[in-house]
Specification:
CATH class of one domain: Alpha Beta
Mean pLDDT: 79
CATH architecture of one domain: 2-Layer Sandwich
Strand order of the largest sheet: 5-4-3-6-2-1-7-8
Structural class: alpha+beta
Distance between the termini: 90 Å
Shape: globular
């Protein structure tokens, strides 16, 4: 019987059969051309311009470069170019690097579990060349001239020698020119550029010893000199992070953990400053993210995320990085133990550097020692006892003798009058009320108010009993007050006695820069002050009590993921941030009149029932509501 052999896709599969094959099989199963196969592979690896940036930067790092430049035009749609001073390639290697599954990183299956480099699949350049115009110039140290190769849709159009320095320059133009469907679904330039910056930061953060530059449309966004880990974080996210970083360090047989975490007060509502690295590779892990969140439990508000830059060092054979095409998901051999170690290390750092809350014991004032007067000699303390004390007799008589003084007690005669100064006035004053511990009446109508746990306010009125969330209530009151005053035309500007300077990251600076005009329209005086820095000289006159830095941080945080296109909505976002950052926080003790005033202001609002995020502000309990609770 004849033996029929079929070659299917990229696999060499030999099929032996005693029966002749069905004719329909040969009509259905066909080999894909290499150009289409490369486009399919590109669909897995190259999803957007940022994917190209990631692959090219990682290749430059693997090549041992100490200086890497990334040049972007039109958010990567027109040009993505990397220039490095790595070891480069010879003519044969340059041509071979464009073939699928061509790599210098592995030679057998066991090498997959001993990887210490970024790229290893051998698909990156081939996938990129399948969906773009690629120009590669490279030169190794053992050659006097370099090699230039032009590739278009996987087809080599031109190859010749060229003059260049040692290293590699790769230019990617017209990305997805032959895949219009993929190009059509790209996001706006701002969104795509944000993804590019994210990939740039991930590579730069894990390689602080390498000098990086990033240019976009001729403007330099980053120039990061080779430095240490802390300086690299500050260089990327701004000088303001210098005081927000807390070091983390833990050494075990299973894993070595180093890096930095942000202080609790620097936590934000949106993600974006959470970085995990293992063996020099960035990865995502909701599981380890939850470990960090657990360590901050009770220190940050709900739905807030702390910043962290955690670097794991493990044995290469204990992780599998080959489970996802983009290599951002990694499987750990013993992730449960690493989870516990990570959480413990962060909790210890928060306590060690005094950023976690501690028990506040009231000091015993009886042990306070007054400083001696000038020239006064300090006497050696002695032990004084009452020899006349008898526990079996009436102590009152012995106590009177002791208070009158005896041979064992040195009488104090000098300045004794000062002990009683103001005593009569203090005795005449009524004891201060403590609304957090007992009921208090406020107002002419004897409205009963009480603060519960320095977080909620209980108000009894004719309608029933109101249980009010004090922070949500105050933020609603401030928002409507600010909105009414700030949105008015010709809003006066109140000059700040000390102008506030904001040092921001590139992404945050871009967000604030796009909103400067809207901020000026509602009474802010703000201007650019160098690279990624702004100076605020004035604020709306109706909002003099706001904390400018916290307001701007909250405003930028709100706009990071969802930026309004309408100017009015953008201005309302600023007012919302001002109200949220200026509102009374939970944990602040209020007096009875303050609680009553907040309740009255809330009832005058247009929408008192809900806060700025749509959450309930108060619960009203009347007789019918209480009857339902008791089933009456």
């Amino acid at each position: 019987m004849p033996i029929n052999i079929y070659r299917l896709s990229a696999f060499n599969l030999t099929i032996s059969s005693a029966m002749p094959p069905l004719q329909s099989m040969s009509d259905i199963i066909k080999l894909l051309p290499d150009s289409i196969a490369n486009q399919i592979a590109a669909g897995e690896v190259i999803q957007r311009p940022a994917s190209v940036v990631k692959e090219l930067l990682e290749n430059s790092v693997d090549a041992g470069a100490t200086n890497i430049q990334l040049i972007i035009k039109d958010s990567g749609k027109a040009l993505i170019q990397t220039i490095d001073n790595g070891k480069g390639m010879g003519e044969a290697d340059a041509r071979m690097s464009l073939e699928r599954h061509a790599t210098s990183k592995i030679s057998n299956a066991d090498d997959l579990f001993k990887l210490n480099t970024m790229g290893f699949r051998g698909e990156a350049l081939a996938s990129i060349a399948a969906v773009a115009h690629m120009e590669m110039k490279t030169r190794s140290a053992n050659r006097d001239v370099g090699t230039e190769i032009l590739v278009e849709a996987s087809q080599v159009k031109h190859q010749e020698i060229c003059a260049m320095e040692i290293g590699t320059t790769i230019s990617i133009k017209n990305l997805f020119f032959n895949v219009p469907a993929r190009r059509k679904f790209l996001k706006s330039d701002a969104v795509e550029m944000r993804h590019i910056i994210d990939e740039f930061q991930r590579v730069a953060l894990v390689n602080p010893e390498i000098e990086f530059k990033l240019f976009h449309n001729g403007q330099q966004l980053f120039h990061l000199l080779g430095s240490n880990m802390r300086q690299r974080i500050i260089g990327i996210l701004g000088k303001g992070y210098n005081e927000k970083l807390v070091p983390v360090e833990e050494e075990t047989d299973l894993v070595s953990i180093t890096g930095f975490i942000g202080k609790p007060d620097a936590a934000k509502k949106s993600r974006g400053e959470q970085f995990l690295f293992v063996n020099g590779r960035y990865f995502k892990s909701p599981y380890f993210h939850s470990a960090v969140q657990k360590a901050y439990e009770g220190l940050i508000p709900q739905r807030h995320h702390p910043a962290y830059f955690i670097y794991f060092k493990v044995k290469p054979e204990s992780i599998d990085i080959n489970i996802h095409p983009t290599k951002t998901e990694i499987k750990f051999e013993d992730e449960r133990s690493i989870y516990a170690i990570l959480r413990s290390a962060i909790k210890r750092s928060l306590g060690q550097y005094h950023v976690a809350p501690t028990i506040d014991f009231n000091p015993e004032t009886s042990f306070d020692i007054l400083p001696p007067k000038r020239g006064q000699e300090v006497e050696k303390p002695g032990v004084h006892v009452n020899p006349e004390y008898n526990p079996f007799v009436d102590y009152s008589e012995a106590k009177q003798k002791w208070e009158r003084g005896n041979a064992f007690q040195k009488p104090m005669t000098e300045g004794w009058e000062a002990l009683y100064e103001g005593l009569e006035q203090d005795l005449q004053q009524a004891p201060a009320e403590s609304p957090g511990l007992e009921m208090a009446f406020a107002g002419d109508d004897n409205t009963l108010v009480r603060q519960i746990g320095n977080r909620y306010i209980l108000v009894q009125s004719a309608e029933g009993v109101f249980l009010i969330h004090q922070y949500r209530a105050h933020s609603r009151v401030l928002f409507e007050s600010f909105e009414e005053n700030v949105m008015a035309k010709d809003q006066p500007i109140q000059q700040l006695l000390f102008p506030v300077t904001l040092e921001l990251s590139v992404q945050d600076a871009e967000i604030l820069s796009s909103a400067v005009l809207s901020l000026c329209h509602i009474g802010f005086e703000i201007e650019s002050f160098g690279t990624n820095a702004f100076i605020i000289r004035g604020v709306p006159a109706a909002c003099m009590q706001i904390n400018v830095e916290h307001t701007m941080a909250g405003f930028i945080d709100d706009l990071r993921d969802n930026k309004p296109t309408d100017e009015v909505k953008l201005q309302q976002a600023v007012i919302k941030s001002m109200a949220q950052q200026s509102a009374i926080r939970s944990g602040v003790e209020l007096k009875a009149q303050e609680m009553l005033g907040l309740f009255q202001d809330l009832m005058r609002c247009k929408q008192p029932q809900f806060d700025l995020s749509g959450n309930k502000v108060f619960i009203l309990m009347n007789s019918s509501t209480i009857d339902k609770l008791f089933g009456a």
